[in-house]
Amino acid sequence: MRPGADIPxxxxxxxxxxxxxxxxxxxxxxxxxxxxEYAPGTAGVVWFSGLSTDPDEDDAVSPGRYTLTLQxxxxxxxxxxxxxxxxxxxxxxxxxxxxxxxxxxxxxxxSSSLTTAGVVPGQPVCVPLLGLLRTFGRPVTLTGHSGDDxxxxxxxxxxxxxxxxxxxxxxxxxxxxxRTVDDPEGPGATIAVTVPVRGESDPVAERLRVATWNMWYxxxxxxxxxxxxxxxxxxxxxxxxxxxxxxxxxxxxxxxxLAERLGWYYHEYPRLHDDPVHDKDVGLLSRHPIDxxxxxxxxxxxxxxxxxxxxxVQVVTVHLDHTSYGPDKAPPGTRRFTAAVRQQECDSDRAxxxxxxxxxxxxPYLARAEEEPVLVIGDFNSPSHLDWTSEVCTPPFxxxxxxxxxxxxxxxxxxxxHPEPTADPGLTWSPVTLWREGLQRVEPQDRIDFIFxxxxxxxxxxxxxxxxxxxxxxxxxxxxxxxxxxxxxxWPSDHAAVLTTYxxxxx
Length: 507
Description:
The protein is mainly β. 12% of the residues lie in helices and 33% in strands. The protein contains 8 helices and 32 strands. A hairpin with an 8-residue loop joins β15 and β16 (189-196). α5 runs parallel beside α7 (400-407). The longest helix is centred in the middle third of the chain and has 11 residues, at 225-235. The chain starts with 6 loop residues before the first strand and ends with a strand.
């Protein structure tokens, strides 16, 4: 099998039990598996993330020889004994002979396809691919496998060309193949590049796909987190994404590194302190150009002027105060804004942040929102007043952060498309944090990541939350020891992303 591809494993037993599919590395000879997946019922499919291939990490699923074994795990008498994990002291019985397979060191692209921003006939195209290619240190050659004659790939790994006049209103295509120099006839990797070509009088884009995504400590909590970020952005055809929990502990920082691998534009928060942990942990990636002269920053946000043809969109990326999390004080399983919840929210800085330190300095841009739409997006660490029922008689009567945005003329894009919170809760916190150890309670699940827009030139056509795979919970377990299962998640974050598709409208 080649790296990069997810590994599906079908299993079947006669009698259901506390079973798992265990993945062992042959070269190590360890009794404990590298990782395992719970195998419920009598039949099913479990998946191992093929992008967990970091050769610098000893628990990665990197090139080498492996076996897969269906095992029954003896139950513990205490809590957690039925999760199929195999804690120390539990009896583990093989139900099948080990199934051997080899994960080769062949090159692979982190995504099988990508689409560029639109071009007009006569406009040069340049799409770098090497940032999306994993080679495991082996020299490779890239060739055009099939596609349009006006697109070629250079030895430096760039797809270049100039769209002819006859291609207006169509798409340019090129499939690029990568093969190792020492085995040019061996299995290679391919990526399909698509270039939309528009007419001279056509808009650069008719739609804009905007995302917000908390990166969970720079996507470092899972194996090959950055590769998984890139794959999600490309597979979801995202045009711009606001990022939170991105830092500049080293240069280049996470935002710039991701942008350079994608060949996109980027805007990162400036380095203001000796320790970057004190800088605002936000940034933006865009497939469309960024105007640095029209962009700026504030202590509490990053403002990015993204140009989509003749239209400029002001994108304000925020990450609000995470302390005194309000839902912790709500009656379990409810969304009731009680006096205790209100007090918890008042103990945080979120309301003041939004009212005085974000909306107030943005006033000149909000006044021009009919010409240059404004987006305020990010991790608010606060639910929405549209989703909760108030039980208080003194202000704030409900979650103030989203109320301030609504009062300023902003629209919550997710609720514009899904107006009923009961039918479409849109949960973003958290696909992996399900239990709060410190409080000994189930973690409140809620919608705390938002895309708000102001200005009639943007109309929300669709909005949804995004999580790929079936992420394991971000918790410790004695059976996992140095191999916590969440490190193998396909989804590299502890938040769901929000993805809104906008129609771009004329004046």
